[in-house]
Amino acid sequence: MFEKQNIIGIEPAELLEKAQKLKDEGYRLVQICATKVNGFELSYSFDKDHDMLNLRMTIAEDEEIMSISNIFFPAFLYENEMKDLFGIKITNLVLDFQGNLYKLSEKTPWNPKN
């Protein structure tokens, strides 16, 4: 059971610095998720000693964000998933499947106008 959970609002430009700081402090990446709002809301969840910390930001649909896969290697899976399902523009992925992580019947099904 997690003892506490914190949600910290950040700007996209802060993501790499905050992720690196968390790695240096011994946090592990738990998950990354996206939801469609007016643009996209992205949540990056980390854990250390059963304390959850979530970095949350909102980006415009056409905004690019940097991958954290150079800091937390497994992030490449979540980030490729966000590209496939939402069409979110993520740059500098360690492994970039170019929108082909999944075989989908339609492009970006959770953001069909993309």
Query: What's the CATH class label?
Result: Alpha Beta
Overall pLDDT score: 90
Structural class: alpha/beta
Helix fraction bin = 10-25%
The SSE string, one letter per element, is EHEEEEHE
Fraction of residues in β-strands: 35-45%
Tally of separate helices: 2
Q: Any overview of this molecule?
A:
The protein has one domain: Beta Polymerase, domain 2 (2-Layer Sandwich). It has 2 helices and 6 strands. The protein has helices at residues 15-24, 75-86; strands at 4-9, 28-37, 39-48, 51-59, 64-66, 89-91. Strands 1-4-3-2 form a 4-stranded mixed beta sheet, covered by helices on one side. It has a two-stranded parallel sheet with strand order 5-6. It is globular and about 40 Å long. The model has no long low-confidence stretch (mean pLDDT 90).
Describe this structure in a few short sentences.
The chain is α/β, with parallel strands linked by helices and 114 residues long.
